[in-house]
Request: fold
Amino acid sequence: MRIVCGLDVHKDSVFACLLNENGDKIECKFGVLTPELEELHQLLLTHEVREVAMESTSIYWHPIWRVLDDIEDLKLVNPYFIKQLPGRKSDVRDAAWIAECTMKDLRFIRHFE
Reply:
């Protein structure tokens, strides 16, 4: 079963939403220190997540990218697109929206090699 993850990145927190093909969600919040990012990484490995998309907020996405760089399909999302969508007001909903767009293979996502 395909499971994707959307990450909404902030200076001091990361909101994660894991979404499977049936629409089941797991939503959590992590800090940005290395041990907390390792917890996020372990969660993704435990649930066999192979696709992760994260919002490219300022420079705050860099440490998260480094911790998750072994994920098979790691993507960076333009935050402008996320903020333009009506009704998206909370960080958890942003993470869920990123996960939904990833599941639907929408093309607002940029790949970096």
The chain has one domain: 3-111. The longest strand covers residues 3-9. The longest helix spans residues 34-46. The beta strands are 3-9, 14-20, 25-30, 51-55, 73-77, 109-111.
